[in-house]
Amino acid sequence: MTxxxxxxxxxxxxxxxxxxxxLWREVAATLDEGRGGLETFLAPWRERRSARILLTGxxxxxxxxxxxxxxxxxxxxxxxxAVATTDxxxxxxxxxxxxxxxxxxxxxxxxxxxxxxxxxELADQVLGEVAHLIITxxxxxxxxxxxxxxPGSFVLLMPEGSNDQGFAMTSSFTSMTLAALLALGGxxxxxxxxxxxxxxxxxxxxxxxxxxxxxxxxxxxxxGSGSLxxxxxxxxxxxxxxxxxxxxxxxxxxxxxxHGPKAVLTPGTVVVVYLSNDPHTRRYDLDIVNELxxxxxxxxxxxxxxxxxxxxxxxxxRLRGTAGLPDPYWALAGxxxxxxxxxxxxxALGLHPDNPFPTGEVNRVVQGVTVHPLV
Length: 375
Hints:
Number of helices: 14
Radius of gyration: 20 Å
Number of strands: 10
Distance between the termini: 52 Å
CATH topology of the largest domain: Rossmann fold
Shape: globular
CATH architecture of the largest domain: 3-Layer(aba) Sandwich
CATH class of the largest domain: Alpha Beta
Helix content: 40-55%
Oligomer: single chain
């Protein structure tokens, strides 16, 4: 197949993958500098144990909530839930509880998606008491402009450049997820520098990921547990988007994969397993690694590991220096594996990663959605 991108052509997607460590440092600095105002806004919601914190977004933005919610819920000892705007808008009465005070955290790259805007409006309509934390990469987006000066709203803008121009969300995903973790969970002990250094080290070892792409899998399965299930979902979406659906991608939890989804496996499948840093959860991740290595062959099972000491039968991609980080934090470096694999596979298929759907079947900002009034 003739490649659609000439060698050496600058790509938005490639630049946006590689800029992430720098943006994370900027996100952390922004949170440190603006901690006072943000804390004033968030403190009443932290103190109200009966309140609900709801993380919402569409597509990749929904997966940001899935990565953050389990850890934040355990850390804060309260209800922190991830619900996609696509579910919230379609069925608000099932997703919103009118008599429960709710902090709605909205993730939005552009702030222009119809469901993102409608979700905040429905929350205002249905809930008796609601506040909005808007985490967005676009200061000119409808969501940011609508909530900029509203009482009961706080707009947390991501650094310039995080509003990805490529088709697939990369740096916007990790920047917004990091912002939510730092905003709601507080500063990370030891800071985010180990995370940024781990990502830079991984980018320098891109050849390890290119070796996975060289296997030319017909399907790729991503598995993870807890916060890493959200990472698995996002990883599968990246491959599906960047290859225009030419490579089948699937995601599931390590335990859940045996309960039916395992049927997706073919001899040409590659399975990527994200190993949890939690010692209990890690045992289940390693169980499925060994099982799949026996059935597919060790070269078809790739482990992404923050600790680097797992006795795995197949290939392992180490995230150096992240052994002490909570899963949702090192997941931000881990997703670079999926982003780079998606880009490499896209190029190998002769596609343009910045525009894998040149005829417009799928769009960077979702189109064609009719938001129906709630009656």
